[in-house]
Amino acid sequence: MLKIEGLRARIDSKEILKGLDLAVGAGEVHAIMGPNGSGKSTLAKVLAGSEQYDVAGGKVTFLGEDLLALAPEKRAAAGLFLGFQYPVEIPGVANMYFLRTALNAVRKARGEEELDAMDFLSLAKEKMKLVKMDPAFMNRGVNEGFSGGEKKRNEILQMAVLEPRLSILDEIDSGLDIDALRAVAEGVNALRSPERAMIVVTHYQRLLDYIRPDFVHVMSAGRIVKSGGPELALHLEEEGYGWIEKEPTSPAAGRPAESRP
Amino acid sequence: MTRAEESLERLLASRADGEPGFLAAHRAEGAATFRRLKLPTTRHEDWRFTSLAGLSQLELRRALPAGMPAAADLPPAPRIVFVNGRHDPALSDLAGLPAGAVVQSLADALARTPELVEPWLGRRVPTSDHAFAGLNAALFEDGAFVVLPEGARAERPIHLVHLASGAAGAAMHPRHVIVAAPGARAEIAELYAGDDGAYLVNALTEVYAAPGAEIAHYRLQREGAGAFHVGLLEVEQGRASRFRGHSLAVGAQLARVESRALLAAEQADCALEGLYLANGTQLHDHLVLVDHASPHTTSRELFKGVLDDKGHGVFAGRIRVRPGAQKIDAAQSSSNLLLSDDAVADAKPQLEIDADDVKCSHGGTVGQLDPNALFYLRSRGVDELTARALLTYAFAAELVERMGPADLRDRVRRLVASRLAGGAALLEAA
Question: A88 CA to chain B: closest CA distance, Å?
Answer without folding.
Answer: 6
